[in-house]
Amino acid sequence: MELEFLLIIFCLLILGCYGNTNRTQIRSDSLNYTTYKAGDSVPLYVTKLGPFQNPSEKYHYFDLPLCKPDYFNEKKQTFGEILNGDHLINAPYEIEFLVEKKSIVTCSKNLSKEQVFRFRTAIERNYYLQIYHDDMPLFLFIGRVDKKGRYLLHNHIHFQVFVYENQIVKIKVVPHHYEDEVDLIEDKETYVEFGYSVEWVKVYIPLVKSTKIKYSKSSKYMDIHWFSLLNSCAIALVLIGLFVKLYIRVFKKEFPEGSHDEESGSNQGERGWKCIQDDVFRIPSHKSLLAASLGSGTQLLTLRRWNRHGGFEIRIFEELGFGKHFPWEEEDESTMLILVLGISGVFYPHNRGGLSTALFVIYTTTSTISGYISTSLYCHFGGTNWLGNLLLTECLFSGPLFITFCLLNSIATAYKATASALPFNTIMKISLLWSLISFPLLLLGGMFGKRNNKAELQPICPSNKVKLLAHPLTTSSVAREIPTLPWFRRALPQIALAGALPFSVMYLELFFAISTVWGHGTYISYKVLFITFVLVLFFIALVNACLTCRQFLAEDHKWWWRSFFRGGSVGLYVYCFCIYYYYVKSHWSGFLQVSFFFGYMAIISYGISLMFGSVSFAASFLCVHYMYHPIKHN
């Protein structure tokens, strides 16, 4: 108990210190605005540039020979900006509130042949500049190629600033005049004079209302979203009807009323799901890997929730006998769910780094869930090396994630994509911070999981009663032979079918999410995404329960891993869709962008497999519980 108490105190101290440093960073941008007086300086920050078609290929603003400010003032980075590689530096443009400016010269440059070549390459690849004002992104292309094939550089920027009373509502950045563009001729030195102008336009809509109008308008695709949801609900009703019909067949026809107490110790001569009652709870192969997969998947799914009484609880496996309250309390009630944060407006509309911060904080602080679930299941399966199981649980998802990140970061460094790669010392600091939070919480969850299962659970073995789901059952000494099944009732077709239906529900939202994340838009349909997510969970649970019943009716008792793979197959469908999206919908080019897309989407698909595999396993577990609850062995 002393070790557990010390771990709790250590974790609370780390979380308290970390929470205090980041509490103000996760907030809604709709509340983040500045008021000005006439003549006040309006700060602008430059950050990145890169090809418009390849959003992952980014370079620092001053990697091109653009105008630099008289002095460099780097804005203090938030944790999310560190994760995103955002370095905001003051722009070389001096804007004063309500002060008109025309043809202000920023700097003059004699571009060498090498610099002209770099600018021509940037124009050919459609490079754009990224500027920020109060977290509002401003974009401007470096130049263009006209119909005559000339490479024209936008050397004069025009800022059109829209104001409401003492607030800046928005800023438009456009090239000033086409006649001011500079023709960059290959292998020829060129003199360029960079400049800017500022125009002020009064509007009659305040910033908060303008932001809400801009991002709350129903897009032209919103009707498609809702139609897809209604269609999914109709399919769900059909599935419910099929499941009810199957349930009636199993429990009314094959298990007539009054036969519960007439069961004998032998099931010879029985057919169907009852004849495998001595095999369904046989210990699964690779029990440690299964327990670790379920622990990691549950962590990714549930994240964390504080119950109304202040205790920490696991929602998914509560009904299965594994979800008990942790014996400590917290002061506040809160639900740290990404979708809930999105619905509440935390990432709305341009909370730069907010999503990255939320993902890091939530994933590290929910390690207790994976440790508790994994150790509980591992002890249920009769495992003894629970520390090794915890190590496997920790490395199962975070290991591939870290390896993939390091590999892609090395590729970005090799391509000199300075804004896409994190420095080595930053990676080490983030890894150390993650370890200090994640490992103690994981160990803490594992200790409570081991303690809660220590007294009541023993290994599953022949003629040894095991208290599983609070119902004593036994397993036979020899596993029952599985009869030959038609091809459509075997493992692979069932796994493919179980993943296809849930994927059909999430297909549309997946398309819009990928288009936004790997593009230049802002995803705002969190309510629709949340409803879709709930429907996907419902489809996975219902389809897997039906297939588990059908599997038992076919006298196939190997359900442990198959139930996990059924839900996990959704991740494979997601990755196949990513391949389709790349070849059919995208316009990307270059190894850097392609490696980033397929690398990170592989990790996301893997996480989806773990997450939905845990849901399907839980559905099968409940199905087994209700099917074999009435059966008793003497």
UniProtKB/TrEMBL annotation:
Coiled coil: none annotated. Residues 1-19 form the signal peptide. Keywords: Endosome, Golgi apparatus, Membrane, Signal, Transmembrane, Transmembrane helix. One of its GO terms (biological process) is protein localization to membrane. It comes from the Eukaryota. InterPro entries: EMP70 (IPR004240), Na/ntran_symport (IPR000175). One of its GO terms (cellular component) is Golgi membrane. It is a multi-pass membrane protein. It is found in: Endosome membrane; Golgi apparatus membrane. It holds the Pfam family EMP70. Its main location: membrane. The chain crosses the membrane at residues 226-248, 357-379, 391-415, 427-448, 495-518, 524-547, 559-583, 603-628. The keyword Transmembrane applies. Belongs to the nonaspanin (TM9SF) (TC 9.A.2) family. This is Transmembrane 9 superfamily member. It comes from Cannabis sativa. The lineage of its organism: Eukaryota, Viridiplantae, Streptophyta, Embryophyta, Tracheophyta.
